[in-house]
Amino acid sequence: MADDIRISGVGAWIVLITSMLILVVVVAIAIASLIVVPRNRRPQSALAWLLLIYTLPLIGFLLFLMLGSRRLPKRRREQQDEINTYILETTEGMDRVSKDSPWPPWLEPIVELNRNLGAMPLVGGNTARLFTDYTESIAAMTDAVRGAQRSVHVEFYIMSVDDETEPFFAALGEAAARGIPVKVLYDHVASVRVKGYRRMRRRLDAIGAEHHPMLPVRPFRGQWQRPDLRNHRKFLIVDGAIGFTGSQNLIERGYKRGRRRDGSRLAWKELMVRFEGPIVAGIDALFATDWYSETNELLLRETSTTPVIDPGRGLDAQVVPSGPAFEGENNLRLFNSLVYAAQEQIQICSPYFVPDESMLYAITTAAQSGLDVQLFVSEIGDQTLVFHAQRSYYEELLRAGVRIWLYRAPTILHAKHFTIDDEVAIIGSSNMDMRSFSLNLEVSVMVRGESIIRELRAIEQTYRENSRELTLDQWLQRPAHMRIFDDLARVTATVQ
Fold this sequence. Notes:
Layout: H1 2-36, H2 43-55, H3 57-67, H4 74-90, H5 107-118, E1 122-131, H6 134-146, E2 152-156, H7 166-177, E3 182-187, H8 188-192, H9 197-207, E4 210-214, E5 235-238, E6 242-246, E7 267-269, E8 272-276, H10 279-295, H11 300-303, E9 315-322, H12 330-341, E10 345-349, H13 357-368, E11 372-378, H14 384-391, H15 394-400, E12 403-407, E13 411-413, E14 417-420, E15 424-428, H16 434-438, E16 442-448, H17 450-465, E17 467-470, H18 472-476, H19 480-493
Parallel strand pairs: 2-3, 3-4, 7-13, 10-11, 11-12
Antiparallel strand pairs: 1-8, 1-9, 2-5, 5-6, 6-8, 9-16, 10-14, 12-17, 14-15, 15-16
Helix pairs in contact: 2-3, 4-10, 5-12, 6-7, 7-9, 12-13, 14-19
């Protein structure tokens, strides 16, 4: 009996000491979180992290240690600084453009902002062709590769060999067989999630392309960073003279998702642009940045030349890179500046619209000031949490006077662009969401010219014709449980 009492007493002490240790750890986590979490982080993001940590202390803190840092490794940031310095030095004097009427007075400081943030100049004398048809854009890129004479640089967030992309890979093989260097980059995490990743790598090996995954997450090889810091850029550069960029990945239009319950298949609608002119050197410089980050090989020093600029002809354009390798959120600063500069209208197309507080204020302020502000998004979503987080903003937008167009299912409107008045357009890979602002490496191209604005206006009209307009009365009638889910998803979007 006495032994049982002693054992029972020891057990009670073990439970007590364990409980005290857990309490000490939880309190230490709570105090440390108050100090560490808010540092250099948006207030709403900090609050979301603190809420998670205080609700689930151990799990929340471990997730913060794994996902809390939005910065790339130090070496990558140093490489970005080296590239920026090089670009500034080699593009000195390139930023000469025509300032013929109607050059808006607000544009020059925005151009200077972009130059200071991303090092790229505004250059004139460019041409652009827009592609909204999925098959046509792949065919155009394939034709460009088939005509290559000196180099082919390929970079896509997602790459896959399938029936739609097979001609493009065949063209890469033909170029390599002609002795042309073919260099390929693809995001590691995004591409490995797609069925056929190893087949795609074997195909690139077989055709003789030099290829590398971007931001690889392979802990057993010593390659580790926050796994959701991704390279979301998409472009193709041929001979340093032709450049493609935009929203489209190199994969079949249904993303291998299969059929929906109603028998239909999701189909992505994209926007790609084919540039010729001095702007292509800026796009190629961004490819060289990413190539240098993955291989330590600096391509710019091999191919850099100063193009001859005719500022009185064609479009003015400026490449704006962004991502965690930069100190500031370059794309967010650019987007906000343009929204506040608008005088008449703002047309936004973004498949994932989850703005931070500053962007939400900018857009709603514009609408409340009487500007024509329209937002094009999809009726359905391919990413559940992001889709519902996006929906949580609709009421505030509608009350401010923003017109919202829902592109009809089963199409996913994946194009990423917006226009300011009849002056400036942005086309690229960046969504208007906090992930694109803070976590993804993105590319945006700011373009000025009447011809491209007219084309984008026509594209925006096709969106309206294939959409239904959402009204505030309709939106307020949605079920209460959906409203709750939307609001909860919105909280998850701020955990960065």
